[in-house]
Amino acid sequence: MLARRTLIASGLSVAAIGILGYGFWPRLDGYHEEAERQRQLLTSDPTLQDLVRMSTLAANGHNTQPWKYRLTDAGVEILPDLSRRTEVVDPDDHHLYVSLGCAAENLVVAAGAHGRPADVTIQSSHEARIDIMLGNGSPVGDTLYQAIPFRQSTRSAFDGQPISASDIDLLNTAAQQDGVSVLIVTEPAELQTISDFVVEGNSAQMDDPAFVAELRDWLRFSPNEAINYADGLFSACSGNPVMPDWIGGRFFDAFFTKDAENAKYRDHIGSSAGVAVFIGDQADPLHWIRVGRSFERFSLQATALGIRNAHINQPIEVPSLRSRFARWLGMPNARPDLVVRFGRAPALPMSLRRPVQDVIVY
Ligand SMILES: Cc1cc2nc3c(=O)[nH]c(=O)nc-3n(C[C@H](O)[C@H](O)[C@H](O)COP(=O)(O)O)c2cc1C
Prior knowledge:
Elements: H1 2-24, H2 29-38, H3 48-56, E1 67-71, E2 75-80, H4 94-113, E3 118-123, E4 129-134, H5 142-147, H6 165-174, E5 180-185, H7 188-206, H8 209-217, E6 219-220, H9 223-229, E7 233-234, H10 245-255, H11 258-270, E8 274-280, H12 285-304, E9 308-311, H13 314-317, H14 319-328, E10 336-343, E11 360-361
Helix pairs in contact: 3-4, 4-12, 6-12, 7-11
Bound molecules: flavin mononucleotide.
């Protein structure tokens, strides 16, 4: 009788913990609603603020959103927000300017689809700035525009299947940009070598406490934290479990290990149809912005074709590795800018952006 009572009591305790845990463990419902709200396509005759919202849905390093926008009589200017630099992983602001290029391209695509052809000038002074003048004309480029809300960095394993030559041609065509070359690698032996470069670069980064600390600063573990900050890298967007913030930090410290990350990267590259490497003609903000424009178009075209992509930039982030990687590419004098794997996979949750009023300056 006693045993039975004990059993019932412990059964009730487990149920109570389960019910309490269910209430206390964060869930994604409100998060998805917020992401959907931010990602509505525009109605006709969009305002400049509307175009800025489309622009901010662009890819950007660590989701720091390192941009400011100034609305002018002629259109929009995009400026760097240097308070959002990631000085460890990106000491020369390379990723920051590539991110501005991605944002510029989204704005150009969204404006074009609404009959506002854009003329882009890059002012490459000390702090480079992008001037986008908007005219009036016929709507163009609807395919890429429709893809803007659905483009994402999909940091999961892909399905291991090849991509057709005609789809790869479309990706290549979309990425064409003056001053930027794109190399597409699909040979298994070459993908294996890229995997070796990524693992070597990742090992160097994981051995650097400053790199790990900077990354940790931009991680968001719970939906509430992700919604409140509206920037940074939310666990669910990388295919990782969501959890209360105070558990998340401890979980990261315990499970974010060099071996686990290296095994994940090998698996992810092995499951990809190919890798695209973006290389600007010169290593300066002007060309980094052009690389961003090229990559964003590649990524939007991929999205339109149901193809995912994710960055594996370790070979270009670690300086000593970057020159060896350039030599392996057969471009010893170049600075390779981005390394991106692609293939097919289900979508992960979409990342969030800060409100438009927070990024417009006067
Ligand atoms: C210049 C640049 C560098 C990036 N580097 C990495 C990277 O090394 N690893 C990674 O997982 N994602 C990388 N990303 C992807 C960003 O983290 C991603 O764009 C951002 O978190 C927003 O998410 P979304 O692309 O899904 O909208 C990079 C993006 C850009 C534009």
